[in-house]
Specification:
Layout (H helix, E strand, L loop, with lengths): L2 H13 L14 E2 L14 E7 L4 H15 L5 E7 L6 H13 L4 H13 L10 H7 L4 H8 L2 H17 L6 E4 L3 E4 L5 H25 L2
Parallel strand pairs: 2-3
Antiparallel strand pairs: 1-5, 2-4, 4-5
Length: about 220
């Protein structure tokens, strides 16, 4: 087995959502303390961030369901995808995601990268692997590498580091509701429970925002 394949297997074992103990009566989410930390400037909408990893089989399996759910969210909710940064080599994978977004690429490219990582079992862990990724995505190799190494991507990665520190993401896939509530699919009863929990917390944040506005 190639080293890269071994790394992927190990990372999937480490970051798979943990099973909840039968005696665990804690809430199926974490409530973050302090002022909510958002990925983008507060525009009055409730922010929902979906954190994933290209090497996570569960992330890929529920992606379609999450996408359908996100497409039906009301107008007072904004949906954002982010790739986790858990340290090497996952930080490289996060930088690939960020690079594609800076290049203006859509979610269809994320699905292709999932295919490279999971179906082809050829994770892109180093700069040396980028030409292979460019070919898989039908992108200009030089442009991909230049963007990967750009200051703009550096800045976006610095923002991601701050989000990771604020949210303390422990597993993927995870959702962050308005910078206030964090949970992963292992905290809920499967993919359906995952999205139902998101709906409940979105409504909770909606009420909290209304209450806060009324007190001003």
């Amino acid at each position: 087995m190639r080293l890269s394949a071994i790394l992927v297997v190990l990372m999937m074992l480490i970051f798979s959502p943990p099973a909840r103990a039968a005696s665990d009566e804690a809430k199926p989410y974490k409530e973050l303390t302090g002022s909510p930390v958002l990925a983008e400037k507060d525009d009055g909408r409730i922010e929902v961030i979906s954190f994933f990893w290209y090497g996570c089989g569960t992330c890929f399996r529920i992606d379609e369901a999450v996408s359908r759910w996100a497409d039906k969210l009301p107008s007072d909710v904004r949906f954002i995808r982010k790739h986790v940064a858990f340290g090497p080599p996952v930080d490289v994978h996060a930088r690939i995601f960020t690079t594609l977004k800076v290049m203006g690429r859509g979610h269809e490219d994320d699905l292709k990268v999932f295919n490279v990582f999971l179906a082809q079992r050829k994770p892109v862990n180093t700069l040396i692997d980028l030409p292979r990724l460019a070919e898989a995505l039908s992108l200009d190799e030089k442009k991909l590498i230049e963007t990967f190494n750009s200051k703009e991507v550096d800045q976006e990665m610095a923002k991601l580091d701050k989000l990771m520190a604020a949210y303390n993401i422990e597993a993927v896939p995870s959702l962050v509701i308005d910078g206030k509530y964090v949970f992963n699919v292992g905290d809920t009863n499967g993919p359906q429970g995952y999205l139902e929990q998101a709906d409940r917390l979105i409504q909770q944040r909606r009420q909290e925002r209304l209450a806060a506005a009324g007190n001003k």
